[in-house]
Amino acid sequence: MNKNTLSQRIVRYGELIPCRTAFIDTHTPGSDQKENFTIIGAGVSESPDQHVHIHETPGFNIGAAGQPPKCTNSLHTHRTAELFFVHKGTWRFFWGIDGQDGEFIAQEGDVFNIPTGIFRGFENVGNQYGMIMAVLGGDDAGGGVIWAPHVIQTAEKHGLILAETGRLYDTKKGETLPEGVKPMPLLTDTELAEFPVVTEKDVIPHYVARYLDIKAMGNKEVVQVLGAKGMLKDRPGFEIDFLQAGQKNLGQTYTSDQHEIFMVHEGHWRIDVDGESAILAPGDTCAVPPNINRQIQPNVSGPTGLFLVRSTNDEAGYTQGV
User: Fold this and answer.
1) 235-258: per-residue pLDDT in tens?
2) Rounded CA gap, 213 and 168, in Å?
3) What domains can you pick out in the chain, each with its CATH number?
4) Do β-strands 52-54 and 35-40 pair in parallel, antiparallel, or remain unpaired?
5) Which segments within 102-222 are labelled E, that is strand?
């Protein structure tokens, strides 16, 4: 990531630019009001209209999904890690080829490190517009999204065709697949049978960290939420710490040999980087490159909470299986 000015490394929540045509279910009733945001890295959007706030990647991508009440993100899977934390609202996560293998309700601040190798979807079950923040493993985020067959088939009925190249074409706008380009093939019954069936008992104890538990564990010291020694033990090429007021050594100047991404959930925070300073508000994201001085501390009384995503040197890119 380029060592440009601090202001150029900050993506403000109020300045996020949405894409409403990012994925194949853009026209599908019940999913047609989604907004997709790419904060760091190009993510997995299938639309050339997607705005990317910071192009350079630190070994992972960061994005967000905004949805009004009753709006659903269709069943899909990824080849790399996908982790969410809820920034606003109440969300239902569900999984399985038909979305029937399990579910749980996530509140603000809850973290879900979704197991690789299963289909997953999510919907806003609150009564206000909701936002969830996502971290995707790898610089190229695994090369795209793998959709459940019925999602692709339903989308075609509403005018959207996904090419084998991973790009969407809207027949309602007169678009057609380029010559020589075929539609994305559907997964076969044999391929679908290879996906495991996992229950809530398999998933929730090992892949979910509740925000109240995170805050309680991080009352006096920085707590690792995701990592080899974390509440969620995984090594997908990044790790996540949780910071809040009152923790030991918070506010001291330090350096890191890894990229660090500061994502504010609660409160306002002052960040100082290599002689520059800024105030981060809830929903803001700040990317700090390696080997420069940085300092972070709360700048307000009351509840505070910040997720710190850090790149790691896990060559294998290990992620939890199921």
Assistant:
1) 999 999 999 999 999 999 999 999
2) 41
3) 6-208 (2.60.120.10), 211-311 (2.60.120.10)
4) parallel
5) 102-106, 111-114, 120-124, 130-137, 146-147, 160-162, 168-170, 208-209
